[in-house]
Write a structure and sequence with these properties.
The protein has 441 residues and is mainly alpha-helical. It has one domain (49-402). Helices cover 60% and strands 6% of the residues. The chain has 15 helices and 5 strands.
Length: 441
């Protein structure tokens, strides 16, 4: 017993002891730091502010989905198909299922995420192919984007976002030593994203492809790929999207409707949703008309509970409500990005890239949806993360947050045991390579 106590005292740092530098220096905010045994890098077991922000979006989304969809029961266009609480019940069930899935994913260590990343990506490709198979994929309004599971519809494009995110992060870790080479690093991942894009455009779902392309490009940039090759790929993607818009008559009409939504043709055509979203925001003014008081949701604004939920929030809670939602999303995105930077500072490249990829995913999709609702961007069918009605989107939004939200550290989260740091340094020493802080940030 005395021997054990003596051994523990040797490990416990003394107050007057000089800090002992750890094996791996880290770089954060452009400055190099060194972890020490006297002052180790630690992160709290959970982030209550981040959890509160996420729960606030989920709670507000649940209330607003009910408010925006309650009048659909009286809409003669649906022939009495829905009850006033139909979408509330289904959204609540989707939320419960998403929480269960998040709790399950919570138990999976990040090492398993990294190991399974290629298989998750392959599974997403298989599902995207199944959507296009006749009598398997379900078509709605001319688009074939869903798989019918009986009680619910599953949208593989949401799974593909997670699959591409995990695979790109895993790919950058594996290609770290050759990330400056075009044929060995950039071309294979570009081809993989191209296959995903081809399958999504066949549905068609250009919005999901835009989000996936931005996620992949963001991870490549943060992973330190050659700047010239990165910007070349970015330019090629932009040119490709422009060509897709110009070559499609209905996409061109959406652009024209965005530029002039109040013209006689656009107001009753392609600009109908946008014009009524702007009317809703105008009625809300500064403080809104009050919860449940929206007029535009009464058969005027299509998809008020999905793509245009923010317009209903603006009408019922005014400028203050919209500003609050924007601030929460900005803070949430910034916080997740910071979590990723902390992980990379602790030499957890895969965890860091995944976290920052999630920040790009949530931030970019929220930016597009908010911009569309405010009339700052052309109309695009992307939901508002954590808030809009949509079981598949809600499921994968919460699943992607699970490993990084409640446990920012610990054996399954972002923290890395000091032994792993020492082993990396020992491995470099065995191969005669200097061990320096990599400029991943």
């Amino acid at each position: 017993m005395n021997a054990l106590v003596s051994r523990l005292r040797q490990w416990w740092p003394k107050a007057d002891q000089e800090p002992t530098v750890d094996e791996l220096p880290v770089r954060l905010h452009g400055q190099e730091f060194a972890r020490t045994k006297a002052a180790p890098v630690t992160i709290r077991s959970f982030d209550p502010a981040l959890l509160m922000a996420l729960l606030s979006l989920l709670a507000l989304g649940l209330v607003m989905v009910y408010s925006a969809s309650i009048a659909m029961a009286d809409n003669p266009r649906f022939g009495g198909r829905y009850t006033p609480s139909f979408f509330l019940v289904r959204h609540t069930l989707s939320l419960g299922l998403a929480f269960l899935a998040a709790l399950l994913v919570f138990q999976i260590p990040m090492t398993a995420w990294e190991r399974w990343a290629p298989w998750v990506f392959i599974a997403s490709l298989v599902l995207l192919i199944l959507v296009l198979v006749p009598f398997i994929g379900k078509g709605v309004n001319g688009a074939r984007r869903w798989l019918s599971l009986g009680i619910m519809n599953f949208q593989p494009s949401e799974f593909a976002k997670l699959g591409v995110l995990m695979y790109t992060a895993n790919y950058m870790v594996r290609k770290l030593d050759v990330k400056e080479r075009f044929f060995r690093a950039v071309l294979p991942i570009a081809a993989a994203i191209g296959v995903v894009g081809f399958l999504l455009l066949a549905e068609p779902d250009m919005g999901a492809f835009m989000v996936i392309a931005v996620i992949a490009m963001g991870i490549l940039f943060l992973g330190g790929v050659n700047a010239t090759m990165f910007f070349l790929n970015a330019i090629l993607l932009i040119v490709a999207f422009v060509i897709m818009i110009v070559s499609s008559s209905w996409r061109r009409e959406r652009i024209f409707a965005y530029l002039d939504p109040w013209s006689e043709d656009n107001a009753i055509g392609k600009g109908y949703q946008l014009s009524h979203a702007l009317i809703a925001l105008g009625r809300g003014e500064f403080t809104g008309v009050g919860l449940g008081g929206s007029v535009e949701k009464l058969h005027w604004l299509p998809e008020a509970h999905t793509d245009f939920l923010l317009a209903v929030i603006g009408e019922e809670f005014g400028f203050i409500g919209v500003l609050l939602v924007i601030v929460i999303f900005m803070w949430l995105t910034r916080r997740i990005m910071y979590i990723g930077r902390q992980a990379m500072a602790m030499d957890r490249l895969f965890s860091g890239l995944v976290a920052q990829g999630i920040a790009i995913w949530i931030g970019f999709q929220a930016f597009i949806n908010i911009g569309v609702n405010l009339g700052a961007l052309p109309t695009k069918g992307l939901t508002l993360p954590f808030m809009s009605y949509g079981g598949s989107a809600l499921l994968f939004n919460l699943v992607c947050m699970a490993p990084h939200l409640p446990r920012l550290g610990g054996s399954r989260g972002l923290a890395q045991p000091r032994l792993a740091s020492a082993l990396v340094g020992w491995t470099c020493a065995q191969h005669g390579k200097p061990h320096r802080a990599r400029p991943w940030l």
